[in-house]
Amino acid sequence: MTYNHHSTVAVLGSGKIGLAFVKQILQKTSYRVYATGRRSETLKAAESLGALALRDNNLAVRESGIVVIAVKPFHFPQLLSEVEPESWKGKIVVSLMAGVKLDTLRAAIPGARVFRAMPNLNSYVGFSSTAVAENGYDDTSRTVEEFLKIFGKVYWVPEEYLDIWTGLAGSGPAFIAEIIDAMAMGAVAAGMPRELSYEAVLDVLEGTARLLRSRLYQHPGQLRDDVTTPAGTTIKGLMVLESGGVKAVLMKMVEEASRRSREIGEEINLKILEKIRQR
Ligand SMILES: NC(=O)C1=CN([C@@H]2O[C@H](COP(=O)(O)OP(=O)(O)OC[C@H]3O[C@@H](n4cnc5c(N)ncnc54)[C@H](OP(=O)(O)O)[C@@H]3O)[C@@H](O)[C@H]2O)C=CC1
Ligand SMILES: O=C(O)[C@@H]1CCC=N1
């Protein structure tokens, strides 16, 4: 296969989200993929998907046109020390790290065109809801948009929304998974087998998302009211939900996750500035 730098992607950090990216890229495109990691298990997992797995972040960056940063935010300073500043020059860099701001990324990797994106683990099946921020709309942004569409839907947002997006859509699959589990357990408590209960909740979730996206409803409250028969079953369940303060808890859950994303950004920014001073 012939290739040039622009048809090669480096995924730095082949963990949970990194591997989801590797899987989709290799399944849907003809990009060559370099995937890095530290442990042999990590490299083996990437290799088994068809990536060129390697420990050398510098080589992966040098050989690629698009570089995805998928390490944990607190591993970023170490990653930086492993890549020569020259290697980043002219690259399109897409950071998936929670919290780490564009200014911090630009200061850390000058000479690259940097984008900050927040996908979610639904990328694994091509159903991510990904927000991306960077100033300007040009050919490079369009390349990044096309690239991110491999993993699902793409939304351009001002950077100020990215921490909130992280708390809502980035962490979202974990929150929804907990709600699904709780509802299935409720059915088990009422006497139905776990597997059947679980399938039913997944069906309800998928169907409700479709119904809410249809033109029938402008607001979820309208669907709630249509389901709720006076003195029926739903209103009794809703009363329990309200008495438990569940709606307020869910609101606080997203708000707190968003706050933590901002906090991570501040912590990493300080570490990066320290690192830059040492250069
Ligand atoms: N998980 C999720 O749902 C989402 C995560 N994110 C963001 O993606 C990033 C990764 O998260 P996640 O995938 O969950 O984390 P994981 O811990 O699963 O993956 C991180 C990977 O980075 C690798 N790594 C760490 N340091 C280096 C290094 N110096 N060189 C090469 N590889 C390295 C680790 O390899 P090894 O294990 O071999 O040490 C590990 O496989 C985070 O910044 C997170 O904020 C964004 C959206 C969703
Ligand atoms: O929990 C986290 O910090 C990361 C960011 C979004 C999903 N997982």
UniProtKB/TrEMBL annotation:
Residues 159-263 form the Pyrroline-5-carboxylate reductase dimerisation domain. Residues 8-99 form the Pyrroline-5-carboxylate reductase catalytic N-terminal domain. It is an enzyme of class 1 (oxidoreductase). GO terms for molecular function: pyrroline-5-carboxylate reductase activity. Its EC number is 1.5.1.2. GO terms for cellular component: cytoplasm. NADPH binds at N57. Gene3D superfamilies: NAD(P)-binding Rossmann-like Domain, ProC C-terminal domain-like. PROSITE patterns: P5CR (PS00521). Keywords: Amino-acid biosynthesis, Cytoplasm, NADP, Oxidoreductase, Proline biosynthesis. Its main location: cytoplasm. It catalyses: L-proline + NAD(+) = (S)-1-pyrroline-5-carboxylate + NADH + 2 H(+); L-proline + NADP(+) = (S)-1-pyrroline-5-carboxylate + NADPH + 2 H(+). Catalyzes the reduction of 1-pyrroline-5-carboxylate (PCA) to L-proline. Belongs to the pyrroline-5-carboxylate reductase family. PANTHER family: PYRROLINE-5-CARBOXYLATE REDUCTASE (PTHR11645), PYRROLINE-5-CARBOXYLATE REDUCTASE 3 (PTHR11645:SF0). This is Pyrroline-5-carboxylate reductase. It comes from Thermofilum adornatum. The gene is proC.
